[in-house]
């Protein structure tokens, strides 16, 4: 294929007129360089600014440990109860949470149990709700057995079975909560989170 001479002249003259590419320093560095470089910490940058003479930069002081009067009543926990406020123990909950959720699930039956399971995210409250639901199941079995005509001699074994199942759920939840509470510090973080789902 023969090309006309003027077209070849245009191609060769354009290749000689193109300058080499310019280095763009505003572009980000390649990933290898960025991933392997170590950035200074906040404290190092502040020290460097102070050494350059930009003026003294004051680091924020920690809040004071004494209680301040900002409301009618200020409750400050004693020094011995700092382990209850530990984020590690926030997943476990307290005995008060266990008893409160037990009574809510016992009084409001399956509705209380479901609400507690949805809105309470501690091991104590979930196991308390399970124990309250088990005892509520036994309570309602006795109520239905003695107040309706459904209870006959032929199916009395069924009522005893349902009531025993409810008591078994309650006792199992209480014992399991006490065992979890006793060995809480020995469990890893993932094992602690798994206990929220009754494993």
Description:
InterPro entries: NEDD4/Bsd2. Its main location: membrane. Keywords: Membrane, Transmembrane, Transmembrane helix. The chain crosses the membrane at residues 96-120, 127-145, 157-175. It is found in: Membrane. This protein has 199 residues and is mainly alpha-helical. The chain has a domain at 95-198. Helices cover 59% and strands 0% of the residues. The protein is built from eight helices and no strands. The protein has helices at residues 5-17, 31-36, 42-52, 87-90, 95-119, 123-147, 156-182, 189-194. Helix 5 (95-119) packs across helix 6 and helix 6 runs antiparallel to helix 7 (156-182). The chain starts with a helix and ends in a 5-residue tail after the last helix. The model is unreliable at 70-75 (pLDDT under 50).
Question: Notable features of this structure?
Answer:
mainly alpha; NEDD4 family-interacting protein 1; 199 residues; 59% helix; transmembrane helix; transmembrane
Distance between the termini: 79 Å
Helical amount among residues, as a percent range? 55-70%
Rounded average pLDDT: 77
Number of helices: 8
- Shape, please? elongated
Number of strands: 0
| Main structural class | mainly alpha
Share of residues in strands: under 5%
State the assembly state of the protein chains: single chain
Membrane topology: Multi-pass membrane protein
Protein name: NEDD4 family-interacting protein 1
InterPro entries: NEDD4/Bsd2
GO molecular function: WW domain binding
């Amino acid at each position: 294929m023969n090309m006309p001479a003027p077209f070849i002249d245009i191609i060769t003259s354009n290749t000689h007129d193109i300058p080499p590419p310019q280095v763009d320093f505003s572009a980000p560095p390649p990933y290898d360089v960025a991933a392997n470089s170590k950035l200074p910490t906040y404290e190092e940058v502040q020290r460097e600014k102070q050494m350059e003479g930009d003026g003294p930069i004051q680091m924020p002081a920690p809040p004071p440990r004494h209680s301040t009067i900002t409301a009618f009543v200020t409750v400050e926990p004693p020094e011995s109860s700092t382990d209850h406020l530990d984020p590690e123990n926030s997943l476990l909950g307290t005995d008060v949470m266990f008893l409160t959720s037990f009574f809510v699930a016992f009084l409001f039956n399956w509705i209380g149990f479901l609400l507690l399971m949805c809105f309470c995210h501690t091991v104590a409250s979930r196991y308390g709700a399970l124990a309250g639901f088990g005892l509520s199941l036994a309570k309602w079995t006795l109520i239905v057995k003695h107040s309706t005509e459904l209870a006959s001699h032929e199916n009395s074994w069924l009522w005893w079975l349902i009531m025993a199942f409810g008591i078994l759920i309650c006792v199992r939840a209480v014992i399991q909560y006490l065992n979890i509470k006793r060995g809480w510090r020995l469990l890893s973080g993932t094992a602690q989170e798994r206990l929220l789902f009754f494993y």
